[in-house]
Amino acid sequence: MNKLHKDLSNAIRFLSIDAVQRANSGHPGMPMGMADVVTVLFKSFLKFNPKNPNWLNRDRFVLSAGHGSMLLYSLLYLTGYKSISLKNIKNFRQLNSICAGHPEYHPGTGIETTTGPLGQGIANSVGFAIAEEILKKKIGKEIVNHMTYVLAGDGCLMEGISHEAMSLAGHLKLKNLVMLFDNNSISIDGPTSLTVSDNFKKRFESYGWDYILINGHNEKEIFKALKKVQNAKRPTVISCKTKIGYGSPNKSGKSSSHGSPLGIDEITLVRKVLNWKHKPFEVPINILKEWKKIGHKGIKIEANWNKLYKKKRKKIDKILKNNFSKTLTSEKKNSVKEIKALATRKSSELTLNAITKENNTLIGGSADLAGSNNTKTKYHNIIKPGDFNGDYIHYGVREHAMSGIMNGLALHSNFIPYGGTFLIFTDYCKPSIRLSALMKQRVVYVMTHDSIGLGEDGPTHQPIEQLSGLRSIPNLNVFRPADRMETIECWELALKNSRTPSVLSLTRQNLAPIRKKYSNVNKCSFGAYEVLRTRKKINLTLLASGSEVNLAIETSLKLAKDKIYTKVISVPCQDLFDSQSKSYKKKILGETKFKVSIEAATTDCWKKYVGTEGLTFGIDTFGKSAPYKEIYKYFGLTAENISKKTKNLIKS
Ligand SMILES: Cc1ncc(C[n+]2csc(CCOP(=O)(O)OP(=O)(O)O)c2C)c(N)n1
Ligand SMILES: [Mg+2]
Hints:
Layout: H1 3-23, H2 29-45, E1 60-63, H3 69-79, H4 86-90, H5 120-139, E2 148-153, H6 154-158, H7 160-172, E3 177-183, E4 186-187, E5 190-191, H8 200-207, E6 210-215, H9 219-229, E7 236-241, H10 264-273, H11 285-319, H12 325-335, E8 342-343, H13 344-356, E9 362-366, H14 370-373, E10 392-394, H15 399-412, E11 416-422, H16 430-438, E12 444-448, H17 466-471, E13 477-479, H18 484-496, E14 502-505, E15 510-511, E16 529-533, E17 540-544, H19 549-561, E18 566-570, H20 574-578, H21 582-589, E19 594-598, H22 607-610, E20 615-617, H23 628-634, H24 639-651
Parallel strand pairs: 1-2, 2-3, 3-7, 6-7, 9-10, 9-11, 11-12, 12-14, 13-14, 17-18, 17-19, 19-20
Antiparallel strand pairs: 4-5, 8-15, 16-18
Bound molecules: thiamine diphosphate and magnesium ion.
Thiamine diphosphate binds next to α2, α6 and β4.
């Protein structure tokens, strides 16, 4: 083996070994096994500039096997990224270190996405690759022509999301996507023969991927495979046969090197085997220089690219600009002219119709429910295999991959992805929704059929605990609009919040309009606001969201007949309401002793508002299969039942 290659890859190995040992925690096996592959990739193929990690046309390198985070930190440090110093590496896994246990996305650091939950990085990388193709179509192949490389292990490929994402990538013929499969046949419980007997070649080829099998420790084979994929016609898996913990005499090839420090004695032996005579964390100056040289190459490459970019910059900026406010304002003005009852999924479609007319950056889609989620508009062009002149993705029945792919689309550049399915199937999207929130990405989840109001499809399809679960995810706005005006306002908030993902929970059934006047203040931005009061001085506060706001109004009017006076508060977004000022919250919640909530879902997330004195009306069991009005009755969600129980409460 070439001496330089050996030195370069051993630098990665020993930084990883030493950092894990010092932290007394972490995963040395994967970086030791994949060091050869990534060395060749970074040295001879990857287009990147450590001095500008945000360069639009950089190749994306995604570490889906996030437990091997030290591999990424070593590469970033060695090639000269400012984000990662040797001191940071010595602080691996310590509080607030950029070198966190698993890679955590921070813009401008070289860490392209947050990984660790296995398989997510694969879906992200499909999103990156789609984004590249779309952007290339929009602004030209001289400006956008980069690759996406994703490093995935046995674990990533066992996960369901890998099947969904790779199947779609193959279908779409994403030739700019390369997977480096760390085919070491070891995972935590031992050899993968315990759990997997897939024929990888057949598996990937059946998706429409090319498959190249190589020895992942042979520099020449690695080079040849990477050279080949530069002109691929389809996505490619380079299956790298590697030894986990390469170089460790007692632990290589064994799961014992996967996730614990090797131990001082073993590390001494590895130093002997790999002939590495340097102290912990010491990378000899000549080797460091070689690595820095590799990083340096990108400066010139980007500078040349910049000459082209500058010429077209104005045009590109125009293409990538997001400006929805005017359109949304005129939508709001239009909406008050109509007084028809509408499902909020339909209101969402009308909003999307308006904003997709001229927009370049919204990328719509749905997991095989376009007609039910109302996500596709007449202005969309559909993305097809090998044809990326579009802005709408038919994700197929692949909710999890859709969500992970949307994260990739959002991370790539200026795109704002939105995708639909039924609210019940947020359970199939949840790991990726959580990552949208953690990574502060503007991804919009359009979740329709949001309660028992969907009717006959029954309890398997009726969300009950989903709203409550989603509301408990930090940095996620869960919107449940009550009519067309609120739907437009919620869309406006979802699009404006560039660092918070949103779930739009929308009805299948029609809802009568509540807001009949145009207001230039976005009332949903307060999270909760008054829509009705039956007298100046009131004895009760009724809180409701979405389809139950009309029910609250009906109840309120009924109670007024019995001289119980109320105000009705629409709560389109608990997350935003919870972040309002103390005085605003007091104004909403502090006026009456008794408070009552109504939402056709679990009641726990309303208890914080109604307190011990109040009542919650909702559903704390599974739904029912029947026409929806009957189900509402069955669960006591009627003005009659609620007003009766409320009267008793006030009298008590
Ligand atoms: C979704 C998910 N499930 C479980 C884990 C815990 N986990 C981390 S690594 C790993 C095994 C991965 O095996 P492989 O990808 O082959 O990695 P290697 O041991 O070869 O480094 C598991 C189960 C995880 N991180 N994510
Ligand atoms: Mg493995």
